[in-house]
């Protein structure tokens, strides 16, 4: 069902975003704690990176239909 | 960029080109400037050569016409050049040559003909004379046979006269051959014709020979022949007549002359006897009577002889004239007769002359004797007179008077006798003296007479000899001619044999040809007849078969009608069955189970297929139902409607997303739009969509309206107009809707197809319309009308079905782009 695709994609996005956000946050915290003397910026950096990645992924996923992939052969 | 490059390249090229011509011209100029004299020299030399060549050609062509003709033939436009330079080529020379050529053979022909004519004339004369020589006895039969032979010979000669013409030019060959053939058929040719024809015809035109018909020639020849024959007959008759008459008269004359001769001799003898014989006086008177009788006889005979002679001479003269006349006629066949007649004449003349000379000699003798007798008589008379003068009393018959005479008388007598003796002595002396003179004179006279006689005799003999010599010559000539004729005949016979062989060959060939031709004609005619016969036969057969066929066909038609009725009934039953199964299918299509959105149509389709096992259209339609529908089933309208309603909100939410706008931000915006935008739940779609109507929200509202009103097709069409993400979202729904539509579209047409077989075209037309109409809730009335369609309109309906299905799909496909 094509109408369910979008829902599925959105689910994936959210999951992915959550994961990445969490991972980024975690990594940020870790790095902040470990290497960056408990500055906030790695946390925000990490979470931001994670969020950004999630955003990018989500966008890519949602766009994927409209993009030509390397494996596809396109006739000119 | 490419264009810019090209432009730059062009510009550079143009520049280069502009520069290059200049340089090349300069180069050329330099080139030419440097070596102008050489080029001009070459050019001038070439021009000179060409012009000299052309001039020489023209001059030579002027001189030699053959060369000109050859050049004109070989070089295409040289004739124009020549006509300009020299005037039209002289073509008069050729016709003249041809004329001379044409004139030559006729002249040659003429010469040949003339030579042949001369030859033939000579040969004819010889042929005519040699038969004459042969027939010197002058019998008609040999003459005629020889005539015939001569005719044949002359026929052969005439043939020969034509033969040299055969190898001559072709235009006369046929004529000559024809002539030959004519003469072969016609055996009455004589040389006269061969002679006459070239004489009468002009030397150039041999054609009149061709034109003379055979019958005319034959008639002419026959006529001439006849004339000759007539003349010959007449001449021979006249000759014979005159010969006979002259012979008769001559014989008569000869007889008369002989008789005269006899009479003369007799008379002379008698006279001699009377003179010399001493017979008694009684017998003397008898003697004298006899003598007188003899004299009378002689005179009579002489007269007769003279008359006879005259007559004979007359007849001979006439014969001579006739002979001369016939000689003057100058006809060949007459000559022998003439010759014979001449000979006869000559002989007769000779005999006559002989007899006449005999008679003349006898006459002269008789004259002498008569003179002598006269002298004697005179002397006697004288003596008598003397005696009587002396002695008048004494009778004449003094011999018997010895007793009666007196002495005086006796003395007187003696004296008288003495005196007479003296006188006689004196006369004798005188005579003796004049003897010599008399003898001389007599001799002279005799000589003269002898000479005359000699001359006469010589003349006559000369004439006779001349005549004989001439006759001999003519005889010899005739013999020679005969010999030549025989030789000629053998040669001619040989040639005739050769000719006959040739003619036989030609005839054989002709016979073959004619036979072949005739056979061909015959076979073609036969073939024609046969084909006609066969044609007629065939026609008859065809007509009969046609009639039979028509009758049979009618019978068959009737049988078929009956069968078709049966078949139609069967069909109707089957159609009904099919209809029932389709109805079942339709019902299945309509209704849905509670748990499954779709029901597989397989069983129903199976039922339809079973019931339409012999109906190809329905079979096709049943098989044409998509696999999906069979296995999985189709969505009913209600389910589709529900689904659409659930879809609608999602579609609204992704209304702004398409290929270009598909970032997350766009998604957020589209969500926002969907939240903030309000449109009608359902809106009636316009009949024509405009650009504003292509807005997704509007389309969705139109589609809802359509769905609510049961127009799935239109709803699908409207949904088809969605683009972008919205389209992706509703894609599945659209597919399902299409499937449902397809399945649903086929079933009414399947139903249409299997109705009872009624031949009602109007109902079928109506039904067509009902098929094409947009899906509306069916009414029972329609169903009945639908049932009335015929089996025979399957084709039309199937066409419509396929057309509509394809139209729908193509519309969908085009809209997808």
TrEMBL record, chain A:
Membrane-topology descriptor: Single-pass membrane protein
Transmembrane portions of the chain: 18-36
Source organism, top-level taxon: Eukaryota
GO cellular component, one term: MICOS complex
UniProt KW keywords: Membrane, Mitochondrion, Mitochondrion inner membrane, Transmembrane, Transmembrane helix
Principal subcellular localization: mitochondrion
Pfam family, one: DUF543
Subcellular location: Mitochondrion inner membrane
Function summary: Component of the MICOS complex, a large protein complex of the mitochondrial inner membrane that plays crucial roles in the maintenance of crista junctions, inner membrane architecture, and formation of contact sites to the outer membrane.
Family: Belongs to the MICOS complex subunit Mic10 family.
Assembly, per entry: Component of the mitochondrial contact site and cristae organizing system (MICOS) complex.
Name of this chain's protein: MICOS complex subunit MIC10
Organism lineage: Eukaryota, Metazoa, Chordata, Craniata, Vertebrata
Automatic annotation (TrEMBL), chain B:
GO annotation, biological process: cristae formation
Pfam families found in the cross-reference section: Mitofilin
The entry's keywords: Coiled coil, Membrane, Mitochondrion, Mitochondrion inner membrane, Transmembrane, Transmembrane helix
InterPro entries: MIC60 (IPR019133)
PANTHER family with a match to the protein in the record: MICOS COMPLEX SUBUNIT MIC60 (PTHR15415:SF7), MITOFILIN (PTHR15415)
Region Disordered: start-end pairs: 99-148
GO cellular component terms attached to this protein's record: MICOS complex
Feature: compositional bias, Basic and acidic residues: 118-132
Lineage summary: Eukaryota, Metazoa, Chordata, Craniata, Vertebrata
Membrane topology according to the record: Single-pass membrane protein
Organism from which the protein derives: Amphiprion percula
Annotated family: Belongs to the MICOS complex subunit Mic60 family.
Protein name (record): MICOS complex subunit MIC60
Subunit and partners: Component of the mitochondrial contact site and cristae organizing system (MICOS) complex.
Function in brief: Component of the MICOS complex, a large protein complex of the mitochondrial inner membrane that plays crucial roles in the maintenance of crista junctions, inner membrane architecture, and formation of contact sites to the outer membrane.
Coiled coil regions, renumbered to chain: 407-434
Compartments where located: Mitochondrion inner membrane
């Amino acid at each position: 069902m094509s109408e369910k695709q979008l829902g599925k994609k959105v689910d994936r996005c959210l999951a992915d975003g959550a994961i990445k956000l969490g991972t980024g946050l975690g990594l940020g915290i870790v790095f902040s704690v470990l290497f960056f003397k408990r500055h906030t910026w790695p946390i925000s950096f990490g979470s931001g990176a994670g969020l950004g990645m999630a955003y990018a992924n989500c966008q890519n996923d949602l766009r994927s239909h409209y993009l030509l992939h390397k494996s596809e052969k396109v006739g000119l | 960029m490419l264009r810019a490059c090209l432009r730059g390249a062009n510009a550079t090229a143009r520049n280069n080109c502009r520069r290059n011509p200049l340089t090349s011209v300069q180069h050329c100029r330099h080139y030419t400037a440097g070596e102008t004299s050489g080029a001009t020299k070459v050019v001038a030399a070439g021009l000179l050569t060409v012009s000299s060549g052309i001039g020489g050609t023209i001059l030579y062509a002027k001189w030699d016409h053959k060369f000109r003709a050859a050049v004109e033939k070989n070089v295409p436009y040289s004739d124009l050049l020549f006509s300009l330079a020299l005037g039209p080529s002289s073509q008069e020379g050729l016709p003249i040559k041809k004329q001379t050529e044409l004139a030559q053979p006729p002249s040659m022909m003429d010469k040949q003909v003339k030579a042949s004519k001369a030859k033939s004339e000579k040969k004819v004369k010889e042929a005519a004379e040699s038969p004459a020589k042969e027939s010197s006895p002058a019998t008609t039969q040999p003459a005629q046979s020889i005539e015939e032979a001569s005719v044949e010979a002359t026929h052969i000669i005439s043939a020969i006269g034509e033969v040299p013409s055969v190898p001559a030019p072709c235009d006369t060959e046929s004529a000559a051959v024809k002539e030959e053939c004519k003469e072969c058929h016609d055996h009455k040719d004589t040389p006269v014709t061969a002679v006459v024809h070239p004489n009468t015809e002009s030397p150039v035109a041999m054609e009149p020979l061709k034109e003379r018909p055979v019958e005319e020639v034959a008639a002419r020849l026959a006529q001439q022949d006849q004339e000759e024959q007539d003349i010959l007959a007449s001449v021979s008759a006249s000759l014979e007549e005159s010969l006979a008459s002259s012979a008769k008269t001559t014989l008569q004359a000869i007889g008369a002359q002989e008789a005269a001769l006899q009479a003369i001799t007799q008379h002379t003898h008698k006279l001699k006897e009377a003179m010399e014989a001493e017979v008694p006086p009684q017998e003397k008177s008898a003697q004298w009577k006899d003598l007188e009788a003899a004299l009378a006889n002689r005179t009579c005979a002489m007269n007769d002889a003279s008359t006879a002679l005259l007559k004979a001479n007359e007849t001979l003269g006439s014969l001579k004239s006739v002979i001369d006349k016939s000689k003057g006629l100058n006809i060949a066949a007459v000559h022998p007769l003439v010759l014979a007649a001449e000979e006869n004449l000559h002989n007769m003349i000779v005999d006559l002359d002989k007899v006449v000379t005999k008679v003349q000699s006898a006459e002269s003798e008789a004259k002498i004797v008569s003179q002598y007798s006269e002298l004697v008589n005179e002397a006697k008379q004288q003596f008598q007179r003397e005696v009587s003068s002396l002695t008048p009393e004494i009778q004449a018959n003094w011999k018997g008077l010895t007793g009666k005479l007196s002495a005086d008388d006796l003395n007187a007598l003696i004296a008288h006798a003495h005196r007479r003796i003296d006188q006689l002595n004196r006369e004798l002396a005188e005579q003796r003296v004049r003897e010599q003179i008399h003898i001389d004179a007599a001799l002279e006279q005799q000589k003269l007479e002898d000479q005359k006689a000699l001359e006469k005799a010589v003349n006559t003999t000369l004439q006779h000899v001349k005549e004989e010599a001439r006759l001999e010559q003519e005889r010899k000539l005739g013999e020679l001619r005969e010999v030549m004729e025989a030789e000629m005949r053998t040669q001619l016979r040989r040639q005739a044999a050769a000719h006959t062989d040739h003619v036989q060959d030609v005839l054989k060939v002709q016979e073959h040809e004619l036979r072949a031709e005739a056979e061909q004609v015959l076979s073609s005619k036969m073939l024609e007849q046969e084909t006609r016969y066969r044609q007629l036969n065939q026609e008859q057969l065809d007509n009969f078969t046609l009639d039979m066929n028509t009758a049979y066909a009618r019978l068959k038609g009737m049988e078929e009608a009956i069968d078709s009725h049966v078949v139609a009934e069967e069909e109707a039953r089957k159609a009904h069955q099919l209809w029932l199964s389709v109805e079942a299918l339709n019902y299945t299509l309509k209704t849905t189970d509670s748990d499954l959105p779709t029901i597989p149509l397989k069983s129903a389709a199976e039922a339809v297929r079973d019931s339409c096992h012999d109906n190809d259209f329905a079979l096709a339609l049943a098989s044409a139902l998509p696999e999906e529908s069979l296995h999985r089933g189709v969505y009913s309208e209600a389910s589709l409607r529900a689904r659409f309603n659930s879809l609608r909100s999602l579609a609204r939410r992704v209304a702004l997303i398409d290929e270009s706008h598909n970032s997350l931000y766009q998604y957020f915006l589209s969500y926002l739009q969907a939240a903030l935008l309000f449109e009608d739940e359902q809106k009636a779609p316009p009949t024509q969509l405009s650009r504003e109507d292509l807005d997704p929200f509007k389309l969705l509202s139109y589609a809802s309206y359509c769905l609510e009103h049961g127009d799935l097709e239109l709803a699908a069409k409207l949904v088809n107009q969605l683009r972008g993400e919205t389209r992706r979202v509703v894609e599945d729904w659209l597919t399902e809707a299409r499937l449902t539509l397809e399945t649903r579209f086929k079933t009414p047409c399947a139903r249409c197809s299997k109705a009872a077989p009624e031949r009602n075209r109007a109902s079928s037309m109506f039904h067509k319309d009902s098929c094409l109409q947009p899906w509306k809730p069916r009414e029972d009335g329609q169903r009945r009308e639908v049932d009335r369609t015929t089996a025979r309109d399957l084709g039309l309906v199937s066409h419509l079905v396929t057309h509509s299905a394809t139209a729908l799909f193509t519309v969908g496909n085009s809209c997808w782009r």
